[in-house]
Amino acid sequence: MATKIYLPELGEGIEGGTVVSIQVSPGDRVSPDDTVIEVETDKAILPVPASVAGKIISIDVKLDTEIKVGDPLCTIKKKKKSGEAELK
Is this prediction's pTM over 0.85? Predict the structure, then answer.
């Protein structure tokens, strides 16, 4: 099953920012809380973590682009639970 990762709320009054770093590529495996991208706001550079474990299927943003809260960042194929088939 695939899960989209969206830009979460970054803080009070912050509606978005600029993608300054993409830490993953399609095919990479991630765990919850692994940084997927970094976003620069007026105040800081903030990491955006994966919310699930799995394999990156697609990256939906590009470097140096403006993104807003709720924009899709990437898609992760969720890791199977014990007893289920392994990711390919």
Answer: no
